[in-house]
Write a structure and sequence with these properties.
Number of strands: 13
Structural class: alpha/beta
């Protein structure tokens, strides 16, 4: 088996036990709360505590934003790894939502000039949060089964178009801050208790596909929408349910999914990272897994 390491970044969300079962490396990302900068590692043992504090701060109207990974950050993280004789497969946050992918490619090109005998493959996940987490989990499984770095990268690129993300955002004001909806839509939507349903499209960008009234109706729409898409063969049956420190509700979504998905499907819940959470707010749920197509 090839001697290669698998990296992803803090935009991915996946269960803590994955880090214990596999060697997954993380490129950390920074977020800022009221002017104070924090670096977030998804593998931190304090993961949920950090997330809980971030979402509590948002509810208290904290000023929260993020910063992207620079080419220098990648070069700093990977130089010694390559020097030690390791190859690298990096599953990156969607190019449709950040310049992170372009920065990673720029850094990889520079490093390959310095280490021409090494392999450094950057894969654009066109995904985020739990969807990116499912992809990272399966990349680790592929390596454990003996896939070479090239085979693993090719498999990911072939299957990425079937990774479905379905999100519910509780407060349109966070999407307005990110330029996703107008101020008028945010104000009216909040008054009418509108909960938008979003997906990540084929281009890796967020799309609002529906607006429903009330959280319970929106959650039901998440579940039925995903169930109508599922069924892709030849992939591990994994679904990650995301939430913003809404543990009980996430477990209920998990329970409802387990009642209707294919036998043997693994359904797990994960708290949303501050990286994505900064942009969607503290009332968020997601269902991410394989589907025949990204859109309804």
């Amino acid at each position: 088996m090839d001697n290669y390491l698998i990296y992803t970044d803090s935009a991915a969300d996946l269960p803590a036990h994955i880090y214990q079962e596999y060697d997954l490396r993380i490129i950390p990302m920074d977020y800022v709360v009221n002017g104070e900068t924090f670096t977030f590692y998804t593998s931190s043992p304090d993961h949920d505590k950090i997330c809980d504090e971030l979402f509590a701060a948002q509810k208290n109207n904290a000023d929260v934003h993020t910063s992207q990974i620079t080419p220098y950050n990648y070069i700093e993280a990977w130089t010694d790894v390559l020097k030690e004789g390791n190859d690298i497969l990096y599953l990156c946050f969607s190019s449709g939502m950040s310049a992170t992918y372009d920065n990673a490619v720029s850094a990889a090109n520079q490093l390959l000039e310095e280490f021409p005998d090494r392999k450094l493959i950057v894969v654009d996940s066109l995904s985020a949060t739990q969807g990116q987490g499912v992809l990272a989990t399966v990349a680790l499984m592929n390596r454990a089964k003996g896939m070479s770095i090239e085979e693993n990268a090719a498999w990911l690129r072939e299957k990425i178009p079937y990774m479905c993300h379905r999100f519910m955002v509780g407060d349109l004001n966070y999407l307005h801050k990110g330029g996703r909806v107008s101020k008028t839509s945010a104000v009216v939507g909040s008054m009418l208790n509108i909960k938008p349903i979003l997906i990540i499209g084929d281009d890796g960008k967020l799309e609002v596909v529906a607006k429903v009234r009330g959280e319970k109706v929106a959650i039901k729409r998440l579940i039925t929408g995903y169930v109508n898409q599922m069924g892709v063969p030849d992939v591990p049956k994994i679904i990650y349910v995301g939430h913003t420190s809404r543990y009980e509700e996430a477990e209920e979504i998990k329970k409802q999914l387990e009642a209707v998905v294919e036998p043997g499907t693994i359904v797990e819940t994960t708290n949303l990272s501050p990286i994505i959470g900064s942009h969607v707010g503290p009332s968020f749920f997601s269902v991410c897994g394989w589907g025949f197509k990204r859109k309804e």
